[in-house]
Amino acid sequence: MDKIWEEMHKAAEAVLGAVTISDYVTAGEVSAAVLSKSGKIYTGVCIDTCSTLGICAERNAIFNMITNGEYEIDRVLCISPNEGKGAPCGACRELMVQLMPGRYHDIDIMIDYSKGKVMKLGELTPQWWID
Ligand SMILES: [Zn+2]
């Protein structure tokens, strides 16, 4: 595993931590780090609400990247309660595809940090409606 993945994992760990914000909102059970093409790491946590207003950690991190004026994703890493394993949900994949049509295939997604398993978004989204 290269040093950049380790830095991303540390960054995601730094914002990880479940909190109850109100009777209706919790956050931080999942965290994510996105590496932009410029090499900067952006983080985000999941936000869960009782009426589907929340957001996945990955999309929150991508929105953080966009908020800071960057639009190209290089890598995505997520720390989930499932021992950090798993792929981004369909909504997160869809956002990445729409953000980088024709170029999303090469985004590296950390699938299992403990094993260093990485997949390309193009492998995770075959036959997508946008090429
Ligand atoms: Zn998602």
Order of helix and strand elements from N to C terminus: HEEEHEHEEH
Give the total of beta strands: 6
Structural class: alpha+beta
Task: Characterize the largest beta sheet: strand count, sense, and whether it forms a barrel.
Answer: 6 strands, mixed
The CATH class, by name, is Alpha Beta
**pLDDT under 50 segments (min length 5)?**
none
The hetero molecules present are: zinc ion
Q: Enter the CATH topology name.
A: Cytidine Deaminase, domain 2
The H-level CATH homologous superfamily, spelled out, is: Cytidine Deaminase, domain 2
> How many structural units, i.e. domains?
1
What's the pLDDT, averaged over the residues?
95
CATH architecture: 3-Layer(aba) Sandwich
- Percentage of β-strand residues: 25-35%
Counting DSSP H or I runs of 4 or more residues, the number of helices is 4
Task: Classify the helix fraction into a percent range.
Answer: 25-40%
Taking all Cα atoms into account, the compactness measure Rg is 14 Å
Distance between the termini: 29 Å
Oligomer: single chain
Name the overall outline: globular
